[in-house]
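Example record

The entry below shows one chain as it appears in the dataset: sequence first, then structure tokens.
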Amino acid sequence: MKREVLKPVFLLNHFFVILYLCSLANGMADLSIRGLVPIFLAALLLMDISYIVSANVTGNRILYLFCGLLALDGWYLLVSFRNAFLADLFFRLLSPVIIYVSVTFILVFLFQGYSYQYKKGIDILLMITCVSTIVSVFLTKRIFAACYGIQFVISILSFLFIALYHHERVGYVVRSEKKALLISVWITVMGFFIYYFATLGIRDHIGNFGVYLTVLIFSLSIHGIVLKESSGVPLSTVFDRGQRWFISAVCIAALCLISLAYQRSALLFAIEWNVFAFFIFLCNMILGWNLRKKSNMGIENHYTAALEKLRKEEQLKAEFSNFLHDDILQDLLSVKNMLSKAYRPEVQDIIYEALDGLNVRIRERMQDYHPVILKNLTVKENYQQLIKEVTASFPQRHITISFECPQDIFIPEPYDMLLYRILRELLTNVCKHSDGDCAWIILAFGKARAILTVSDNGTAEISPKAVTNALSQKGILSVREQTEALGGSMDVSRNQPCGMQIRIEIPMKGDVSYQHFVS
């Protein structure tokens, strides 16, 4: 499904929730606290969906997946207190799907879309248990309960296994995002205690709260991690923060007055609140489309800045297209014209030389514009592929490359791309300027710092002048500037017993990693 189609889908989901609440209002005289709590929690989830979808300028898939999970949780809450047959059937169908999507989302979120050890096996296992549980819904309740219990246990054990196997990665996320995690737990626990003491005299006032607390802590934690910007929605281009708060307060007061006038304060207020959120969601969508078309050129903020970034990316794509047309297409046409004389050996040599040149130039330009990092491979496998590509571009050199890196190493965004570029530049420098026949590459990660060491066994003497010459090269100079700009360090020293060694050390701040991952 195209990313632009997903926004109307979430808007339509919001509309169906409102219709469902209206059907509740017509079929029931009033709701008990057991029904009002999930309705208001579902309304909060809907508001979160509308906010995230509106702020998702670049159409990031992980945010859409999170919104889909919130939508499933919202419907799960809405049908949890109904005793009707269809509501019970829908509730049982949602239960295994939510478990599957939740575990899948958490793993994708933790590893930022990268492949990891045992990923394929875990994915297959989770899918099989989910499908089996869904099928069991149409059998007896006892079979469903057994399948659901098995799925729940297998899902938890699978997650714990991956978390323990990749404990360094999980520990890094927890340490980096502990502020967002603690705030979400604190808000949820304080809200629960306020509600608990305020409703002590009401029977069954904390029914199903185990589910509610889990959903709230999970959604608030992810929300706090991935969306650190509070003004990245289209309406923030029109109103400042104070004006938005004032408009919201006026609308809430109006909704309360209408609810009191009709003496159906609780359920009617929930419907009105969802209608208000639906209207804001629709306004954000329309305004976002207008901003993309540059219909409001005088507005500047985070949202339009993100749109400007997208336009610059389109400009970069246009430059790349011009490169293909001007520098590549002409050579291809020349080769095509020579095909009629390809039977001549000298023409064949010219064709082969031209094609080899095109191959090298295309690869170099593509790597300059945007290095290819495949998410279906691990970080180590991506870097191994890079080493093969760089050495293959120097067929005249026969250099033995030794690459040491932990199999389960994880470099978070955007540091994975930065180290990828740095490694490519340093290895290219070795192939171009070193007269040695061996090179050693060591990549390590520890205490939120990445350490990259590239050395060779060339015969050049390491003197202050040689170090100055090495650092004055354009590529190495760029590496040094990028490293120091991030608070890192770059050292050039003598490799034992001979050759040169370059050591890069970069601190990695986890609190901005996920913000970059989704922005």
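Notes for this example: The chain has a mean pLDDT of 77. The CA atoms of residues 14 and 278 lie 7 Å apart.
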